[in-house]
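Write out the 3D structure for:
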Amino acid sequence: MNEVYEFEWVEVADFDDMSSYAAELFERQLLRKPDSVLGLATGASPIGFYEKLVERHAQGTFSFAQTWTFNLDEYIGVEPSHPTSFHNYMKEHLFEKVNLPVTRRHLPDGMADDLNEACLRYEMMIRTSGGIDMQLLGIGVNGHIGFNEPGTSFHSRTHIVDLAESTRKVNAKYFPSKEAVPRQAITMGIQTILEAKQIVLLALGEQKVEAVEQLKRGVISEDFPASCLHRHPHVTVFYGK
C-alpha cells in the first residue's frame, strides 16, 4: 500500500510573497548543492519566482554554473524560437539572465521526428543526471500538473498528451486565438515528477481556489492528477487568494 503524507501548507499574502518564498527554497538548494538538478515549470504562476531567483542570483551568493535543469513540458509542433514556446519562455525569464550553461538546460523536444523516442530520451537524460532534486509545479484548474490531464496514470513517464479543452482555454491568452493553441504536448509523467526528492507547488488566485480545496481534501484519484502528490514525502505548497 502506498503511504500517504502531509504537505507543508504555506499560506501567502500575495504573488510577491509566494514568489519570494519559493525562490528562497531554490536558493537554499543551490547553496547546499551547487550541482543540483532542478525541475522547472512555465506559465503565469512561476513568473515572479523567476524574477526573484534572478535577483537573488545577481547578489552573487550562488551560481548556476554546475546546475542542471529539466522543464516539465513543451508543446508539440511549436519551434523552440517561437514566442509561445516554453523554450522561449525559459530564455526570457531565466536562462538569459543567469550563468546556467546552455548544455545544462533541457526541455522536451516537441519538434522531434520521432516523438516517442524523444520522450524516452528525455527520461534517460533525467536518470543520467542523477534525478531531480527539487521540482517546481503549478496546478491547473482541473488539477493537472505538468500537462498530465485528468485520467493520466500515476505510473506514467514522459509522454505525449492531448491537451484538455479547459487547459487550452486557459493557455489561449498566450496565443492569437484559442484555435492557435496546440492540441498536444510532451510532458514529464506523474511517476517522473514523484521521483523528485522535493516538490514545490505554487497555487495562487481565485481561479485556483477550487483546485487547492480539492487537493486539501486528500482524496487520491487519477481523476485529479495533483492528488498523487499526497504520496510524496516532501511537498511544500504555497497558496493563497
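The mean pLDDT is 97.
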